[in-house]
Write a structure and sequence with these properties.
Blueprint lengths: L1 E6 L4 H13 L9 H8 L7 E7 L2 E13 L2 E6 L11 E2 L7 H8 L5 E7 H4 L7 E12 L10 H13 L3 E6 L1 H4 L2 H10 L13 H10 L5 E8 L2 E11 L3 E9 L8 H15 L4 E3 L6 H6 L2 E10 L3 H15 L1 H18 L2 H17 L2
Parallel strand pairs: 4-6, 11-12
Antiparallel strand pairs: 1-2, 2-3, 3-4, 3-5, 6-13, 7-12, 7-13, 8-9, 9-10, 10-11
């Protein structure tokens, strides 16, 4: 029997249960961890709702969702957007087939829209679910020979450049990482991201979120140093000492000729290979540099659920619009102009990043 319990307040016992389930699930990511939930809850997303799911008395899933408007309809949605790169739902692998049942139950209250759901989490029931591709997600399989996956010319060129240069590479994790998060903010300010409306840490509220994130044991900050000056950085999550997810990546524009972005990528790959990491996940979206370093890719999906047919019909219209790439981008660019006029910096930057991602995927 399936039992879905809403947790108005998480007790100490609930938190322990969540953490134990996360530690035992091989495919768990930072974004369905308690650490990501509490960082969001205490900063930018105070209204996250949480359900615990049991099957015949066995604890099988944690479902944290936020209540907000999606395509003009009040829905239960994946929380933490636009900062959440993966599914926030933690569910035992053997019970993935129950995901549609769980969502259908929740959709009796409001429609449910799940974004950035990994292919591995939904592939078994995807044909029977209203869905669309959210984005492509490139990755490197570090169990295989990396020279068979990267562009050899690029790799060898970077290796020669590193041998000639006097840059230092350092990695900080967990508590140490939290001491260097302001360096990550500073490097983004010196990059070309701000003028291209692609900055991530654009407000003090967002920075507070990432200060909390940096305290997690899974958080890694890697820095490339010219003497004592940090000129490039990577912020990512290293889960279970096996999987690395790249989340943010910047470099000082003054050093552009030295290719610091590519150099720090080369160095962190070497670092992870030496520690027997098995997967380097580039996260959502495709770009030229990601294509140079990866031959593998999987899709992330948006899943739609509702107990009311009228909402499902509306979602089908939204999906049809999304599929018409040209019209969809025209619509988004018009919306971007309106946000610029309104002065909503956070939503403007989020939408600008989304348009850039669409442009990259069209390359």
């Amino acid at each position: 029997m399936l039992q879905i319990l809403k947790k108005d307040q998480l007790s100490d016992e609930d938190i322990i249960e969540w953490k134990i389930l996360w530690s035992k699930e091989e495919s768990a990511t930072y974004f369905n961890s308690y650490d990501w939930y509490i960082a969001c809850k205490q900063t930018m997303f105070p209204n996250i709702e949480v359900w615990f799911v049991y099957q015949d008395g066995e604890f099988i899933a944690v479902v944290p969702l936020d209540s907000e408007k999606f395509s003009k309809i009040q829905c239960l949605v994946t929380y933490g957007q636009p900062y959440t790169d993966k599914s926030t739902i933690l569910i035992k692998k053997n019970y993935l087939k129950l995901m549609p049942n769980i969502m259908q139950n929740l959709s009796k209250e409001k429609p449910v829209v799940l974004t950035e759901i990994e292919e591995s989490q939904c592939i078994g029931f995807l044909p029977d679910t209203l869905h669309e591709i959210a984005c492509a997600n490139p990755y490197i399989d570090l169990n295989q020979d990396i020279m068979q996956q990267v562009k050899k010319y690029e790799w060898n060129k970077l290796k020669r450049k590193i041998d000639k240069m006097d840059f230092n590479f350092v990695v900080y994790q967990g508590e140490q990482a939290s001491q260097h998060i302001d360096t990550v903010f500073k490097i983004e300010e010196l990059s070309n991201k701000i003028k291209r409306s692609r900055g991530l840490f654009i407000s003090e509220t967002i920075r507070d979120l990432y200060r909390k994130v940096s305290e997690s044991p899974e958080t890694i900050i890697a820095l490339l140093l010219d003497d004592d000056k940090a000129i490039a950085c990577i912020l990512g999550f290293y889960c279970k000492e096996k999987y690395f997810l790249l989340h943010n990546w910047s470099y000082d524009e003054a050093y552009q000729k030295e290719a610091p972005g590519r150099l720090i990528l080369f160095m962190i790959l070497q670092y992870l290979i030496e520690r027997n990491c098995i997967k380097f996940d580039f996260s959502r979206g495709v770009s030229i540099i990601k294509k140079h370093f990866s031959t593998y890719s999987e899709n992330n999906y948006c899943l739609y659920y509702s107990a009311k047919k009228i909402y499902l019909l509306w979602f089908r219209i939204v999906i049809a619009l999304n599929k018409n790439h040209y019209l969809y981008k025209c619509y988004l660019k018009l919306k971007l102009k309106m946000l610029k006029i309104s002065g909503d910096v956070v939503k403007y930057t989020e939408l600008a990043n989304r348009i850039t991602m669409l442009d990259n995927e069209g390359d």
